[in-house]
Design a protein that fits this description.
The protein has helices at 21-30, 62-68, 87-108, 142-161, 182-185, 189-201, 241-247, 256-259; strands spanning 10-16, 34-40, 52-54, 74-77, 112-118, 131-132, 164-170, 207-212, 221-222. It has 272 residues and is of the alpha/beta class. It has one domain: 3-Layer(aba) Sandwich (Rossmann fold), CATH 3.40.50.720. Strands 3-2-1-4-5-7-8 form a seven-stranded parallel β-sheet, sandwiched between helices. A two-stranded parallel ribbon has the order 6-9. β1, α1 and β2 form a beta-alpha-beta unit. α2 (62-68) packs across α3 and α3 packs parallel to α4.
C-alpha cells in the first residue's frame, strides 16, 4: 500500500459511490488523507468509523446533492451506474446525477472533482490501436456514452466556472487481473490510490483526462501529456501473464469482444 503523507490532508473529503466495489476499497484508504471522510451511496454503508460521515443521497435528487456537497473541500465521484444498463437508469444516475453534482459544486464553492470516467468512453477502438486522451471518444454502449457526457460536462464547468476536474478513464481495477484483456487494462488498488491522490493534490489540473492503468507491458492507452498530474504507477500485470494466457490459449478473432478494447461491453446487450 502507498505510504500516506501526513502533509496531504483535507478537512472534509466526499466519496460518492462508497458502497460499490471500488468505493469500499477507497473508503479505508482515503480516510488517511482527510480529517472527515463523507461517504455517500444509496446502498447500505454500514456503521460509520471514526472520522467518517454517512450521507446517503440519490444523485438524481438535486436538493439532496446540494446538501451533500455542503462544506466539502473536494469530491471523488464514483457514484452512479457502473455497468451497461437500460437507458432510464443511466440517464438518471449518470447524466442527471452528474449535472446535479456539478451544479452543487458550483453553488457550494467546491473547486476540485475527481470524476470516475471509464475506458468504455473509447471502447470501440481496436485492440491493435493505442489511444491517447486527445483522440475522439468512441463509446461502446450507453454506459460509455454517459461517461463521455460526464467528461464534456466537467470541461464545461471548468471553462465557465473554474471547477477543476481530473477525469479518470478507469480500466479494470481488481486485486489482480482476471483475464487476458486485463493484461492491458488492469489497475491495481494501490495504483488506484496513487492515481486519485495525485489527482486531488496536483497544484493545477485544469480539466484533465487520464487513463487509469498500472504499468502494464501491454498497453492500449497513451497517458503522454498527463505528467502534470504526477501519477507514477508502481504495479504491473506482467506477473499474471503466464497463467492468464494458459487459461485462454485460443482467442476467437471473429468475436467483437476480442477485436475491440471495450471487451464484452461492445456486444449487443439485453437492452437493445
Amino acid at each position: 500500500m502507498p505510504t500516506h503523507s501526513s502533509s496531504i490532508r483535507f478537512q472534509r473529503l466526499l466519496l460518492t459511490g462508497a458502497a460499490g466495489g471500488l468505493g469500499r476499497e477507497l473508503r479505508t484508504r482515503l480516510k488517511a488523507y482527510s480529517q472527515v471522510l463523507r461517504l455517500s451511496d444509496i446502498a447500505d454503508l454500514g456503521a460509520p468509523a471514526q472520522g467518517e460521515e454517512l450521507h446517503p443521497a440519490r444523485l438524481e435528487d438535486a436538493d439532496a446533492v446540494l446538501e451533500l456537497l455542503n462544506g466539502v473541500d473536494a469530491v471523488v465521484h464514483l457514484g452512479g451506474v457502473s455497468t451497461e444498463q437500460p437507458w432510464d437508469s443511466i440517464l438518471q444516475a449518470n447524466i442527471v446525477g452528474a449535472y446535479n453534482l456539478y451544479e452543487a459544486a458550483r453553488k457550494q464553492g467546491v473547486r476540485r472533482v475527481v470524476f470516475a470516467s471509464s475506458n468504455h468512453v473509447t471502447g470501440f477502438y481496436r485492440q491493435d490501436q493505442v489511444v491517447s486522451v486527445r483522440d475522439p471518444a468512441r463509446p461502446d454502449g450507453l454506459y460509455g456514452l454517459s461517461k463521455a457526457f460526464g467528461e464534456d460536462l466537467s470541461r464545461f464547468y471548468f471553462d465557465r466556472y473554474g471547477i477543476e476536474t481530473v477525469c479518470l478513464r478507469i480500466g479494470s481495477s481488481f486485486p489482480e487481473p482476471r483475464n487476458r484483456r486485463m493484461l492491458a487494462t488492469w489497475l491495481s488498488y494501490d495504483d488506484l490510490e496513487r492515481l486519485i491522490i495525485a489527482s486531488l493534490t496536483a497544484p493545477v489540473v485544469g480539466h484533465s483526462i487520464i487513463y487509469g492503468m498500472s504499468d502494464n507491458t501491454t498497453a492500449w492507452w497513451d497517458n503522454n501529456g498527463t505528467q502534470h498530474i504526477g501519477y507514477r504507477p508502481q504495479d504491473t500485470s506482467e506477473p499474471y501473464r503466464g497463467q492468464l494466457e494458459a487459461a485462454e490459449p485460443l482467442l476467437d478473432h471473429g468475436d467483437p469482444a476480442v477485436i475491440f478494447q471495450g471487451g464484452p461491453f461492445v456486444r449487443t446487450g439485453p437492452f437493445e
